[in-house]
Each structure stands twice: as C-alpha cells, then as structure tokens.
Amino acid sequence: MTQVNLLPTEVREGQKSRRALAAVILAVGAAVFLLLFIYTLQTARLANANHKLAAQQALNQGLQTQIDSLQQFAQLKAEVALRQTLTQQALTNQVRWSGVLRDISMVIPNQMWLTSMNATVSDTLQGGAAATPGAPPVVGAQTLVGTIQFQGVASDNPTIALWLSRLVRVNGWENSWLSSAQKIVQDPLHPSASKVQFSSSVDLAYPATVQGSKQ
C-alpha cells in the first residue's frame, strides 16, 4: 500500500533538518566523549610515569648518598695502595747486610780469614726480561742484583776451594769466583808455613734481597 505524506513541504524539510542536526550533535558528542576518554587515559599514564620517575630519582639519590658515604674508604684504599707501592720501590734491591755477615760467618772455613770485603748493589736488575716493552722487568731466582768481593788469607788452596763451594750454598748467592790466589811466606824462618792470599767474589741474586727473601 503506498503511503502518502500529506504534510506541507516546509514541514517535511524542517523534520529532515532536525534529524540531520540531531545526528550531527550525536556525532560531535561521541567525538568529544572519545577525546575526553583518550585525554583521561593519557593523563593517568603520565601520572604513573611521573610517579615511577620520582621513585627512581629517590632511589638514585639514596644510592648516591651511600656512594658518598663510602668515598672515604675508596680514598683510604688508594692511599694504602700508594704506600705499598712506595714501600716496594724503597725496598727494591735492598739487601739486609746483617744477614750477609751472619751467612759469611757460617760458611767461612776455620783455616781462613778475610782481610777486606766490598759489596755493590745495582739500581737496575740484571737478567730480568720485561714481559712487554716499557714494563718493569720480570724478576726471578736468577736475576742478579749485586756482587760481593772478598780478599783474605787461607792456609792452602783446598781451603779456598771449600770456601767457594760454601758460598753458593747461601740462598741467593750465585757464581762464586776466584779472581786470584798467591802463596805468601809470612815467616821467613818457617817457609813451610806459607799461606795463600786470594781474591774471590760471589753474585747476589734476587732471593738475597729483602723482597726476594719473602717470596
């Protein structure tokens, strides 16, 4: 059945305009609501991020306070390390001569006595090879640091040989050497009671130093 709208044209156009306006208002309202929802969501996310940032900043501040309180211990550790380095440098190639004299008294044969002794210690290590160019030399048992020279008088040559063999028994003493030996007559009335005047030496290796003896 065909429907016929008997309303005037002006009325029909007014109804269409109102319906269109209502649709536009509804669409605008939906858009505004959506924008408000998105704004509220982003505001909540921003507030959450700011809260986390504030918490992290507070944690960082607490950690920094702890670091600052421990800084004095780091400085103390650095000072201790520096003092240890200075001590090691001060003891480099240092020989305890009281121990040297004790060792000599223990190894010298009965039929022999010393008339003089001269010792030298080098400021640089001999025989130590550097691990890398420019690095400190690597020291070891065979690294030589000095020499002791002896002059003395013995009853005979076997006594001197015994002396040389005993020298290298001392820890850190290497390469005992006889430089010269000459028979002398001290009493012309008893030429058979002649003695042997000699010069000898022995090298000091790293174990003979204060540092080397501790390793």
Shape: rod-shaped
Total number of strands: 6
Whole-Å distance between the termini? 120 Å
CATH topology of the largest domain, by name, is: Alpha-Beta Plaits
| Order of helix and strand elements from N to C terminus | HHEEEEHEEH
Rg, please?
50 Å
The average pLDDT score comes to 80
Largest sheet: 4 strands, antiparallel
* Content-based structural category: alpha+beta
State the CATH class of the largest domain: Alpha Beta
Instruction: Please give the share of residues in helix.
Output: 40-55%
Uncertain ranges: 127-137
What count of domains describes the coordinates?
2
The CATH architecture category of the largest domain equals 2-Layer Sandwich
Number of helices: 4
Question: Which key phrases capture this entry?
Answer:
215 residues; Alpha-Beta Plaits; 4 helices; alpha+beta; 6 strands
